[in-house]
Amino acid sequence: MSFKDHLQNSKKLVDDYIQNYLGDLEPTLSRPGLQELYKSFSYSLAEGGNRIRPILSLLTAEALNTPAEKVLPLGAAVELIHTYSLIHDDLPCMDDDDLRRGKPANHKMFGEAMAVLAGDALNTEAFFLLTKNYSSQPELALDLVSELALAAGAQGMVGGQAVDVTFKGRDVDSAEVEFLHTYKTGALFRISILGAARICNGNAYQLKCLSDYARAFGLIFQIADDIKDGNKNTEPSFVKAVGLEKAKETCAALLQQAHQALESFGDRARGLKDLVSHLYERI
Amino acid sequence: MSFKDHLQNSKKLVDDYIQNYLGDLEPTLSRPGLQELYKSFSYSLAEGGNRIRPILSLLTAEALNTPAEKVLPLGAAVELIHTYSLIHDDLPCMDDDDLRRGKPANHKMFGEAMAVLAGDALNTEAFFLLTKNYSSQPELALDLVSELALAAGAQGMVGGQAVDVTFKGRDVDSAEVEFLHTYKTGALFRISILGAARICNGNAYQLKCLSDYARAFGLIFQIADDIKDGNKNTEPSFVKAVGLEKAKETCAALLQQAHQALESFGDRARGLKDLVSHLYERI
Confidence class of residue B167 from pLDDT cuts 50, 70 and 90? Predict the structure, then answer.
């Protein structure tokens, strides 16, 4: 199967899972007011995006020879967290974006108050989704809740956004940029991969390798974004911190690290390998 | 011990627990940006309020002859959720309140962007707090996470807020007002009481009684609030729906129900009994 087809198939699994999840939820939120809330958060969750986080969970399951169904709930929970963060990010008091993925931002469709609530609901529902779907293995479920909360909270994604908010405008060095992105975007990539590995009973060595992969993946993702954006935005950026050439060199070294980290998985890790190569090629 | 002293002692236990919790968290959030986030959410969490939700957990533990320490983490987790909801509620796009408990609202102190993030962080940290403190009993911990997520999310508090947002201005009957408050404030009272009962190994009959108590408590709390506010605000209100006299009658009946629900606990439920009587007397 070509990488493109592989990616499309994985994305379809995720989209279908989320569609079913929303379908199950809808009847429980049929009252006036609740219906509006449902419409608001399902608008942002259903129209998707690249689903890269749940896809990372699926590709990790492949690397560990485990059926996709096992990790779909985790991937979806991470996607709920990611989606809530986008809804809140787009608010006028945050990045003030009217458009998201070419469509009106949540608050442009449903108003700011409902957008705040839709984000809040998705944040909470992510944890409910985990408890519901992994309840037959309470220790695993608890571990996933704990790790997702850490990855999403003050010591993870939200912390990264706070750092970002306070950074705005001032010059930062590459260590600070790495720190920022490790929190802001890296933490959710990490839980998508390592949470999946935990579900698939990865051993300590495999977890170590996947942790190295996750780090390299997150940084390449971010540097590629920075290179694409050039000097357009006011965000802290690797390109601004170290220059374009050095940023490209760093990326090439990280790609090598990512591939090396996957060596012991052999051909089963082809999806993870192709995905990071694909990211790199965007540069 | 007088009821006033009893309440003060319980509140001090909660305040001390939350102070320690924040003290443990602070060193993990010492970087620039993270420090701002910490200051923002600890500002709203530390200055407190009446702590009625964690106090309900403590009084439930007393009724079930269980040490307070067992239920403090649950009570604190509910308080984190309650605090995040207040921070988001006060935002200009929500209720637009400049003051909270006589002090500047979170966004007046730290800016709107940081207030959104502080709320988001507290929402997530509540679940982390549960996993961390009840990990020695994974099934219990998972149950608490699940129940708190339900109580706080679209089918609980956030759902109630969404109903509230869409209600604004239009006339509603008493059934709708009860529905709204069951979601908006009742769900967190309920988890404070029933989550504590679960931790304290309450039996099915005790859970049933405490569930009846929780319902009556929540409604009295809300009707008392509505009576106090009179026709000042534009929120849906029992008083507006059924008139002042009928609202007072309903409250008297609910008080009797709450007391009856506690009968089988004998004197150990004195705290719960006094608390609901105290609420009633505010009318």
Answer: confident
User: What pTM did the predictor assign?
Assistant: 0.96
List, for residues B233-255, the tens digit of each pLDDT value: 667 778 888 888 888 999 999 99
Beta-carbon separation of B145 and A162 below 8 A: no
A218, A274 contact by CB (below 8 A): no
Q: Which of A97, A119, A138 is nearest to A41 (CA)?
A: A119
Inspect the interface and report whether the beta carbons of B124 and A123 lie closer than 8 Å: yes
- What number is the ipTM of this complex? 0.96
Q: CB distance A116–B25 less than 8 Å?
A: no
Rounded Cα–Cα distance for residues A166 and A197 (Å): 34
**DSSP calls for B40-108:** HHHHHHHS----HHHHHHHHHHHHTT--GGGTHHHHHHHHHHHHHHHHHHTSTTTT--SEETTEE-HHH
> Best residue in B95, B131, B173, B180 to probe A by mutation, most A CBs within 10 Å?
B131
Do B117 and A161 make contact, defined as CB atoms within 8 angstroms?
yes
User: Could you tell me the fold of the domain covering A3-281?
Assistant: Farnesyl Diphosphate Synthase (1.10.600)
Rounded CA-CA distance A73/A144 in Å is: 11
Domain ranges of chain A: 3-281
b/e burial code for range A67-105 (CB count within 10 A of at least 16 → b): ebebbbbbbbbbbbbbbbbbbbbbbbbbbeeeebeeeeb
